[in-house]
């Protein structure tokens, strides 16, 4: 995923935009205060006490899935390479429903049966393996730091654009805000911040879609304008070609089954019988918010082509420049504040997952469960936040590398062992450990060597895609070689959940 890193947004310090942003911050502070008063146990801190309702969960998970990338970096990518960029989010409304169908009920029931709090905990329970539990937790912890750093840099850019703080100050202000409500209210604060952001952005997306069509004279006129000037932009694979588009689709569809900050929310639903309605709500919510993702770059491309809008300094300016010029300032303020809220909510989820890996999963895997986990969880949240904010000060290309590394690492280390393992009784402990280790090794080595330009992959081939494919192949291959042990490695209660 290409993060919001290329950096400078145009100045957004208009009174209405600043006022909307301040109102957002006040509401977030109120949510944090309320959530802190309800966070009394480690289960409250990590999985909201498994007491979240259906509508709340659907909106929160939609918001955690989209993040700020979908509103700035994503439209910028489509503006740069055409319709190939849509293949990142095109499967979203379907694959998130698929993820719910594959994982939701089983994870929720596992949480009930075993008292689980985390995704590594589910992997450890499925294979009766402390090694798989600890190794997956270590991989998550490594990826979380990079992902949080990427999002803190993006948040710093937005805060700087709205309040004129300077990038470094913006990063640390953003970190302090997120840390305050995450350490105090845990995932509950993040859930309801997600709800705020998701509801606002759904409304804003519909409004922006209307303004985008109006500014370009309707979709037919927008399409004809772009086709006359740059036919490759609207070609089925965009300007990047079929391999890039299909690689995006593969990595971001199957890879979604391994994103712990998203799938861990399945532990939180109060009544697992409601999952049948969750699929419909999630798909509709994502379809609405995707309107903004593709309408802005198409309208902006047409407006720049006709001279109604000046050329962009960088593709990532597609969203802010369009909003400032072609929507009411209040709508622009909602979107910019929503982007900041989206980033904050995503960082909250990552920090919560990282804190759980550090203070719960790794100690449990080593047989040394910590006392006072709630206090240690809050302290580890502070540690992760400070380290990630420090990393965010590094060069943009390095932080971008860490963000891409994080996505691929999550996907390749979790998706095979968990998504396949909870449905296939032939999966073995050795297969799970081998696939997790393979995903970790291929992603770390491949992305690092690529970053230092030791090699260059063919156009459209990504390390994330290669590591995901390799991890799946190793998972199936090693499980087949050790298949004689498969039945004996599944506990009776786990098998019952798998069969439901």
Output the CATH class name: Mainly Alpha
Beta-strand proportion: under 5%
Number of structural domains: 1
- CATH superfamily, please? Sodium/glucose cotransporter
Order of SSEs = HHHHHHHHHHHHHHHHHHH
If you consult CATH, what is the topology?
Sodium/glucose cotransporter
**Separation, N- and C-terminal Cα atoms:** 35 Å
* Poorly predicted runs: 1-6
Radius of gyration: 22 Å
Structural class, please? mainly alpha
Total helical elements: 19
Q: How does CATH name the architecture?
A: Up-down Bundle
Helix content range: over 70%
For the biggest sheet, the summary is:
none
pLDDT average, as an integer? Answer: 84
E-strand count: 0
CA-based shape: globular
Reconstruct the topology from this structure:
Blueprint: H1 15-38, H2 42-47, H3 54-66, H4 73-81, H5 92-114, H6 119-127, H7 130-163, H8 167-216, H9 219-229, H10 242-254, H11 260-263, H12 275-306, H13 318-326, H14 329-365, H15 373-392, H16 396-420, H17 429-451, H18 463-481, H19 492-499
């Amino acid at each position: 995923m290409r993060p919001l890193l290329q950096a400078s947004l145009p100045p957004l310090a208009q009174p209405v935009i600043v006022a909307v942003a301040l109102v957002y911050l006040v509401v977030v502070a109120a949510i944090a205060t309320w959530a802190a008063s309800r966070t009394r146990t480690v289960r409250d801190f990590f999985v909201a006490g498994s007491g979240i309702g259906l509508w709340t969960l659907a909106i929160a998970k939609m918001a955690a899935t989209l993040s700020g990338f979908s509103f700035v970096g994503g439209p910028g990518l489509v503006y740069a390479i055409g319709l190939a960029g849509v293949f990142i989010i095109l499967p979203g409304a379907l694959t998130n429903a698929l993820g719910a169908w594959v994982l939701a009920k089983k994870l929720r029931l596992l949480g009930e049966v075993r008292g689980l709090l985390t995704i590594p905990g589910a992997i450890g329970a499925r294979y009766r393996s402390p090694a798989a539990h600890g190794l997956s937790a270590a991989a998550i912890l490594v990826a979380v730091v990079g992902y949080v750093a990427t999002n803190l840099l993006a948040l710093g850019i937005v805060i700087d654009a709205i309040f004129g703080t300077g990038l470094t100050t913006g990063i640390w202000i953003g970190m302090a805000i997120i840390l305050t409500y995450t350490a105090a209210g845990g995932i509950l604060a993040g859930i309801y911040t997600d709800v705020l952001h998701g509801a606002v952005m759904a409304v804003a997306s519909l409004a922006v879609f209307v303004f985008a069509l109006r500014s370009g004279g309707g979709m037919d006129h927008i399409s004809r304008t772009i086709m006359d000037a740059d036919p490759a932009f609207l070609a089925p694979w965009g300007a990047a070609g079929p391999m890039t588009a299909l690689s995006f689709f593969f990595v971001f569809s199957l890879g979604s089954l391994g994103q712990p900050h998203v799938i861990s929310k399945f532990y939180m639903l109060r009544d697992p019988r409601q999952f049948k309605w969750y699929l419909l709500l999630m798909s509709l919510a994502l379809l609405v918010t995707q309107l903004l993702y593709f309408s802005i770059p198409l309208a902006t491309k047409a407006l720049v082509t006709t001279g109604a809008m000046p050329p962009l300094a960088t593709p990532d300016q597609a969203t802010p420049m369009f909003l400032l010029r072609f929507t009411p300032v209040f709508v622009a303020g909602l979107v910019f504040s929503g982007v900041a809220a989206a980033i904050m909510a995503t960082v909250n989820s990552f920090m919560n997952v990282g804190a759980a890996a550090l203070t719960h999963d790794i100690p449990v895997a080593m047989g040394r469960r910590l006392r006072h986990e709630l206090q240690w969880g809050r302290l580890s949240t502070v540690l992760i936040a400070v380290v990630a904010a420090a990393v965010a000060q590094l060069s943009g290309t390095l932080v971008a590398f860490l963000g891409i590394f994080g996505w691929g690492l999550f996907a390749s280390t979790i998706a095979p062992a968990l998504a396949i393992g909870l449905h296939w009784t032939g999966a073995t402990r050795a297969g799970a450990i081998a696939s997790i280790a393979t995903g970790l090794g291929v992603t770390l080595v491949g992305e690092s060597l690529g970053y230092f330009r030791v090699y260059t992959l063919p156009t459209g081939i990504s390390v994330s895609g290669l590591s995901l494919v390799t991890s799946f192949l190793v998972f199936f291959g090693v499980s087949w070689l050790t298949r004689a042990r498969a039945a004996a490695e599944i506990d009776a209660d786990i098998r019952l959940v798998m069969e439901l």
